[in-house]
């Protein structure tokens, strides 16, 4: 290859061999300016491209690092929040488990009370078989630690605690339903028992407990002959209080030559009580009285040898011994 310079152009000769055709290329002189210029521009463009790409890469890297840092901080906050929430949930679970145990103990106490109520209402004790005893083997008790080595709770242990608590709650719901049914029945029996107690003459008709004469055959104080004493004579002073021994309705009051001033009360179920020799009657026919109400005052009217109360219990029209009915002194005893 050979260059031949002219004034405004140069010839590029390419000689491929001695016997081969010579190739001539005529190029203007400006080619030596244009080509280097183009090469320089391309090189500068390339360098600028590399520079801006590197700058953009740095900016992108910094942006990604900043985003990554922000994400890491956000994740760290989320993890910290989740750990805090998890700790709260664990604390609540422990508290809930402890409250479940306490509730089971309270329920056991209520069931014991229900058993007592069943006995009081003549309910067979065998019908109350739902008592609960906290199962310490299946359900760990939560208490205040006083020492020992602290070990982290494993996932299996948490799962076991949750399962035991769920089982305990299911048992509690079942036992509560049974207890409510039993208590409802016991409540009805208590209402019936209270109603029966209210109309049963079980209290003493006066504050005195001194018996002058009991129910049965005795020597008549006036004739000294054997006679049937149809009630209970209770010693007292004139003006002592006389109480209704059961709730009921006053069906008769008046004065009789043998009874003196008297009161007859009908209670129900064929039971009546009669109070005689009173110095004063404080109720009238048709009045409703409650157990323990003041109805009269002790006296010595009628066929009487001294101040006392003659008290009778009449069952289905027949006078019976009052003493087996006398259990307490007043309604509020």
UniProtKB/TrEMBL annotation:
Coiled coil: 72-106
Lineage: Bacteria, Bacillati, Bacillota, Bacilli, Bacillales
M23ase beta-sheet core domain sequence ranges: 228-322
Record-level Gene Ontology MF annotations: metalloendopeptidase activity
PANTHER family: MUREIN HYDROLASE ACTIVATOR ENVC, PEPTIDASE-RELATED
Region of interest called Disordered, as start-end residue ranges on this chain: 124-145
Source domain of life: Bacteria
Residue ranges crossing the lipid bilayer per the database entry: 30-53
InterPro entries per UniProt: Cell_wall_metabolism_enzyme, Dup_hybrid_motif, M23ase_b-sheet_dom
Bias kind Polar residues: ranges: 124-144
Keywords, alphabetical: Coiled coil, Membrane, Transmembrane, Transmembrane helix
Listed name of the protein: M23 family peptidase
